[in-house]
Design brief:
The protein is mainly α. It has one domain. About 75% of the residues lie in helices and about 10% in strands. It contains 2 helices and 2 strands. It has helices spanning about 20-45, 50-120; strands spanning about 1-10, 10-15. It is rod-shaped and about 105 Å long.
Length: about 130
């Protein structure tokens, strides 16, 4: 297990993480530290604990909003997949109807051609 030393709110912390996750943990710590710095600029020195709690609540709020957005997007994707299936079924039905209409028309044309050939039968001209 790897260890990282990082600074948050002016204090150093030694943190453990999975091997290979050191840079990610450092980036997370810098994000939290920057939020605390921003809050300190906005509210002044109101205590490290309060600033840390406020920064943590802000991160938690963003996480909850992102999770809600993700759920909505997953629902949208599911609805679009359902709509795609319905549209595919409709397209298949329309295609089958067109094929049926062409086959029916071809059969009628063949029937007409046979009748015409029978009618002309004694002559030298054949149709089709």
């Amino acid at each position: 297990m790897a260890q990282v030393v990082t600074t948050i709110a002016g204090r150093q912390f030694r943190l453990a993480c999975e091997d290979g996750q050191e840079d990610h943990l450092q980036a997370l710590a810098k994000e939290v530290d920057q939020r605390i710095i921003d809050l300190r600029r906005k509210f002044g020195e109101i205590g490290d604990t309060r600033l840390t709690v406020m920064a943590t609540l802000m991160v938690a709020d963003e996480l909850v909003e992102a999770m809600q957005k993700m759920r909505r997007l997953e629902e949208d994707v599911a609805a679009l997949q359902d709509a795609r299936l319905v549209a595919a079924d409709r397209a298949k039905a329309a295609s089958d109807a067109v094929v049926g209409a062409f086959n029916s028309a071809a059969e009628r044309i063949e029937g007409i051609t046979k009748k015409l050939n029978q009618t002309v039968g004694n002559g030298s001209v054949a149709i089709g």
